[in-house]
Amino acid sequence: MIKKRILSITILFALTGCNDDLLLDTAHQTVPAMPNSIIFDDINHNGLQDIDSEPTLTTTDAKGRFRLSTTTTLQGDLAVKSQDGTLVLRTPNDEKIISSLTDLVVIEMNKERNQARTAKEEVILKQNAINKVGSELGIANTEKSPLFSHFINEQNNELTDTAEYLTATKISDPIAYEKNSLLIASTASQLANNPIKCSTEQTLSITAEGEIVCNAPITINSSLAAYLQQSLPSPIKGMAFEGFEASLFDLFNNDNDLGSNSNSSPITLYSPTLSATGITASILWGSNLKLSSTNLVSGGGTHLITLMMDDIGLNLGTLDNPKSNYEKVSTTSVTFEFTILEDDRNISINVESHTQLQNTIAQWDLSVDDPFSATLTLSSLFHDPADTFSHVELKHIDIHGLDSFDQNTSSMTIEGTPLYAAEAGKALIISGVDKQGEHVDAIFSLPEVKSNYLPPEIEYGANLEDRFIYIKPIESLRDDSGNHLGSGVVCEIRYFNSLDSSLYSYARILESYSECPVFPDGTIPSESNGFENYGQYTREQPSNRITFELEEDGEFMTITYQAQEISTNGEPHLLMHNSESMGNESMYSLNTGYLSTEIINSVLVNPLDTDINSQVSFLDDDAQPQQLSVTASIPSRVPAGETGSADANLILHNMTCDQATSIYSFTADYSIAGNPMMWDLDTTYEDKGDDCNVDFSSQSRLSSAIHTLYGEVNTPYAAKYEEISFSFNNLKD
């Protein structure tokens, strides 16, 4: 990441005569200037540019130079403002040097300037300020104060270093700087004589209490902030809001912040008025902005969403009272505008009718291969005060096999035969259309489409005892509401010990991303070699079904394991049929248990720019194990014709996208030091020949991390299909 070195642009700027004009330039070739900065007359002496009364006089060029005509009359202080607005330096209007030292003089003058003064009074005010600043900096009172000298050209290292410290401090907290300028000046002068060096990429500044801080200021990635502002939706009052989610990765440039490791600060959010509209804003998993709503949107207007991150610095205390503490230095924030539009269309949704229809739809009984038909009465769904209503349309139904028939102004029939099972929550969208073609969408949530599929009864299962069974090291994480949080890289090993009929499990985060440990045959699992005893199990014969009971929060869960012997490319594996039952509910899963670490460890070393081909297991209609061929890739550069800052792809061979999206929910995540992070994605699906191509695109660049392409099996298919996962190692030294 390229970061601005703000400190290096602001040490000294000199005004010298040139063709009867004034020219601002750096006094030394090794000191970069302030390019494209604003020059203005600070008439009200507050260090802020009031555009109405203090227009821009000119701007500096690429080398930081500018000219003012000799006819220009300054009423206030001559001020230069950096392009990003983080720094304003001033000088009295009769001086020809601008630096952080001259800015100190202006600050002290303004502290005593409570009314308009005569020219003679201004001279006295200025001299008093020079004396105060000079006293704090240890500068002798001479006819021409060194505060207005070319101290860089004159190689006055003490004043140069002092100016550096002052500039960095003012950038970090301009308000506190102005209030405590003399104390900060005194500390800066002491530092110039007793220098303290910060580490690379860190700058040294001074707090309002005169304490010394090493810190790399957190800045905002302006291009990503602009993209996020542009991406924010504008929902309509009285309408359903489908939600919004975006990655905040790289929004705050904090790579060099001293707190970016063990002392890092999370992103926090403040939006005082948004919740009253029925929309909730939250930070998901520390890296994503999420906007959601459970009701129709209320309220209107523009609401502010402010994202903040505390800047952590190393506080070294004062020269007389040193310390070494990581502390909050400042808070960096960026604010976005979220606008709710008034519904100015001719028709709108009747909230009461919408609720009644949703209750009706929730009672639908949908099952795969079972014919279905239902008629919805829509006569009161849409308000039509202007008598412009024309008709209704089925805009979208997210269940393959169902469609609409007999559409008219007052009803719609939904019928067909569901082709695939689906979890509850899929969308049904009915549009009300007026005579001008304008439409209003009513969004409904569909119930579950039951699969009617039960796991097969395996009469003779594989023996699971006394074998180290390695589980593919990808773990899907969800929050309490079931939202997918990301995938973490773990290493899991199970061992069913026949000696004491106990299940031993080994699981740890692979912080080094190196490999799963290999346990030789004959090893007995125990706490000493990293295993945990989960308790005793029972084994049935001849099915070799293992049953294990686990107590969780006072409730007992029954877990069963059974396996079939399978082979991939001539290597034997176990196809594991697992179930978890609590009360009347059962959850199923299908996954491969590997008998060696070769495939497990290869997951962690896939490089970018490589097409990875693999197979995942599933059961056919006769409950026989089959293989689904899948190809995955993550290019290091976005291919020509693709959009975004990063790209990834999955190809499911001999499967349509309708079938693939019914069975799987696709996402891509990354894991840093074992911590799962959500990757902000746009996902598209395209049938190409007999294959389904899943294309991931992200505005966020690839991280130095383990990136995982992931297909999570939807609940109705959990006992029939194995999850898809491919990991790519993009860790950089």
Automatic annotation (TrEMBL):
- Give the organism, scientific name: Aliivibrio finisterrensis
Q: What is this protein called?
A: Uncharacterized protein
